[in-house]
Amino acid sequence: MSSGPHILVIDDEPQILRALKTILSAKRFQVSTASRGEEGLALAAANPPDLIILDLGLPDMDGITVCSRLREWTRLPIIVLSVRENERDKVRALDAGADDYLAKPFGIEELLARIRVALRHSAQAQGDQESLIRAGDLTIDLTRHVVTLAGEEVKLTATEFKLLAYLAQNAGRVLTHQGILNKVWGFEYVDNVEYLRVFMSNLRRKLEKDPKKPHYLLSEPGVGYRFSLGE
Amino acid sequence: MRSIFSQVRFYLYAILTTSMVTIPLYFLRGYLNTSTIALIYLLPVLLSTTSWGLGPGLVAGFAAFLTYNYFFLPPYNTLIVGHPQDILSLVVFFGVAILTSQLVGRAKQNLTAAMERERELARLYELSVALAGANGLEAIARVVLNQATDAFCATFAVIQVQAFSGGEAFEVWSEPLDLSPGRLPTVVSPLQTARGLIGEIRLWRGEVPLTPSEAKLLQTFATQGALALEREALLQAETRAKVLEESDRLKSALLSSVPHELRTPLATIKASVTSLLSGEVDWDSQSRQDLLETVDEETDDLNRLVGNLLDMSRIEAGALQPARQWNELEEIIDGALKRMRHAIEGYQIELDLPDNLPLIPVDFMEIQRVFVNLLSNSTKYASPGTMIQIKARVRDPEWVWVQVTNQGPPVASEHLDHIFEKFYRVTNADEITGTGLGLSICKGIIEAHSGCIWAENLTDRFAFSILLPRIWEGKSISMAGVEAT
Lengths: 231, 485
Prior knowledge:
- The complex is a heterodimer.
- Chain A is of the alpha/beta class.
- Chain A folds into two domains: 6-126, Rossmann fold (3-Layer(aba) Sandwich); 132-227, Winged helix-like DNA-binding domain superfamily/Winged helix DNA-binding domain (Arc Repressor Mutant, subunit A, Orthogonal Bundle), CATH 1.10.10.
- Chain A has helices at 14-26, 37-46, 63-71, 87-95, 108-126, 158-169, 177-184, 193-207; strands at 6-10, 30-34, 51-55, 78-83, 100-104, 132-135, 138-141, 146-149, 152-154, 174-176, 217-220, 224-227.
- A five-stranded parallel sheet of chain A has the order 2-1-3-4-5, with helices on both faces.
- In chain A, helix 2 packs parallel to helix 3 (63-71) and helix 6 crosses helix 8.
- Chain A is globular.
- By secondary structure, chain B is an alpha+beta fold.
- Chain B folds into four domains: 2-115; 135-230, 2-Layer Sandwich (Beta-Lactamase); 242-313, Helix Hairpins (Orthogonal Bundle); 322-484, Heat Shock Protein 90 (2-Layer Sandwich).
- The A-B interface holds A 84-85, 87-88, 105, 107, 177, 193-194, 197-198, 201, 212, 219, 221-222 and B 296, 299, 303, 307, 310, 323, 325-328, 330-332, 334-335, 338, 359, 364-365, 368, 477, 479-482.
């Protein structure tokens, strides 16, 4: 047995399970599989994995329910798989606590990249939230509310800082538009995506070398944003 | 009670008028002859008839007859008539008084009836005009309800319509709501069509019952309303039948074209994979790579095809309801380019998007599909190595104009109008793969956003142009902030 990270795959399609098990094992992950939601929840509780890959279309229960049931007791990273036709479910899953998503059919390189990001993020999160976040030449001091870029302080408005801090504290995770609006602006603003877009555009102008090809503040098209610590 | 009192009052007025004429005549008795007096006495009779109706007119006539006899025919102050000639004039007077008052009274009654009929006609005309502008069963019922409430001064009204001709049962209530519990409606009129009862109108209005003419008008309202409802229901049934027929046609067209479209990539994948699996050939790494890339591209193609089929069925079912949100055009185009990265690999992609593009209120996924399909179409008709350009400009306060151009061959003008139709193929199906669905999906999506899309030949290239709206819920948003419009 290899001693790599343990991944639990919950999907009802045997072909996908078989393919993922083969590929992930070859990449030195320990893989366990479940084909039903209840089975997956039981497995996760009995032997907590390092990461869960969860298909949203399960026969016995909604993948979103599985997601929120898991979030009741664990922060372990969850990557959801959705088919293109249920894109709105993907947003609901992210709001229910999933870290990332991938649309079927996907390339395996893409999946491996997401797994790497999620595992690294979870390793960081376990080391408790630090008050200083570093990403490339960007530092964010959460206690002093100071942001510096290559050593120079960047002036941000209060809302801009709140937005940046929330994204950076969840680095690597996909945060939905609604989730961010709820957290930064408040519940009554969840439908005002335009605020978020205008503020993100300002933040990018202040923090990114090329605002059109952002390095830290990445768009997740149609879903939300993700803060990248920079590869 | 009131009406009886006013009737009595009118009779008193008639007698009073006659007395008022009698007084001056009494003093002038010596100077006037009896026939002149009789003539003057016709005045109060006519006046009473025209002002208060036939009854008071007759009473005035009778009073005039008595006073004429009593005061003006000798011997005075008795009801005895001396001269036979006077008897004759008395009888003639009485006859003339009654005849004229009857004539005038009847004319007046006719006038009132005519005016009432005119009011009814005006009401009916208003109703039919309002009905002509109403679409949908509920809207029609609402029109009838409002018109009836007005016409009959109802305090509250309800129209209840049963399920018929495939429609659903519903009720419309007038405003403000008045729900005195248990109070029975003043009048209920059935909505009756040739095929049977489809509902009823219930009116409430204080204690006043409907007059016979009002009852008749209400009935006409009900008939008109029922007819309009029935016509609308039949129209809807017909539309449903047409949609079914159309989707049937679509299904058979799909069934004939899809297997071919599915088999082409499947055959390629199968061939490549079995080659790699077979132990007979020792593939060098370059050939192996080529075969695997083919598989990768073909699966993308299959995936897109399945997506298009689903989109088409959704558009056909009228289930395409864009989940609008404020989006950046650039992000949408980036998403589409990412999704198409294999297919566009050999092409030069040029983006010409100004920095100050406003946000557009569209469904991200749907509009991304439009660009995916336009890119896919461009790669099919333009040869690799050529340029595909996506360009956007702010046209005016209402629209953003986007153009996707490729260096493919021009399309003959007779095809230009048709290329957005389902299954319309300019070229022979064997030369270029595709279901002929992509562009019709683009059109469906863009139109669901109330934008428009068209194709045109430019001097050295072929272009798809799109107009997308900037205004949603009464505002437009530039990256500088919200602008109310």
